[in-house]
Amino acid sequence: MPATSPVTFSVLDLAPIAAGTTPADTFRKSLDLAQHVEKLGYTRYWLSEHHNMVSVASAAPVVLIGYIAGGTSTLRVGSGGIMLPNHAPLVVAEQLGTLASLYPGRIDLGLGRAPGTDQATAAAIRGGRFGNPHDFPRDIQQLQAYFSSDNSSSIVRAIPGEGLEVPIWILGSSTDSAHLAASLGLPYAFASHFAPGQLLPALDIYRRNFRPSATLAEPYVLACVNVVGADTDAQAEHLSTSLKQFMLGVVKGKPAPLPPPVDSMDGLWDYAQQQYVEQMLAYSFIGGPATLAHELQQFLELTQADELMAVTNVFSHEARVHSYEVLAEVLRGLPKPVEQLAV
Question: pTM of the entire structure?
Answer without folding.
Answer: 0.93
